[in-house]
Write a structure and sequence with these properties.
Blueprint (H helix, E strand, L loop, with lengths): L2 E4 H6 L1 H9 L4 E5 L2 E6 L31 H8 L10
Parallel strand pairs: 1-2
Antiparallel strand pairs: 2-3
Family: Belongs to the phD/YefM antitoxin family.
Function: Antitoxin component of a type II toxin-antitoxin (TA) system.
Organism: Halorhodospira halochloris (Ectothiorhodospira halochloris)
Length: 88
């Protein structure tokens, strides 16, 4: 069962509420009887289980000029020119 507390009680008993949350309970904070927030335990990933850096290593190739690809079209767009317009 989720406990609901008002803002004053939450401020007064924050440590007690956080102890409950750390044990896996959720607590709803209400203002004038209307729920405005839910406190729940933060689940951080276990060390070494989530590594995103380098996950595509060896699977893609980046061209040497990747930072210049489409450079003229981008420049034209910034200067207000239509890159699809035909030259006179």
């Amino acid at each position: 069962m989720t406990e609901t507390v008002n803002i004053h009680e939450a401020k007064t008993h924050l440590s007690r509420i956080l102890d409950k949350v750390s044990q896996g309970e959720s607590v709803i904070i209400a203002r004038s009887g209307q729920p405005i927030a839910r406190l729940s335990r933060f689940e951080s990933p276990q060390p070494g289980t989530s590594e995103r850096v380098g996950f595509l290593k060896g699977q893609i190739e980046v061209p040497e000029d990747f930072d210049r690809l489409g450079g003229q079209a981008i420049l034209d767009a910034f200067q207000g020119e239509d890159p699809n317009a035909s030259a006179p």
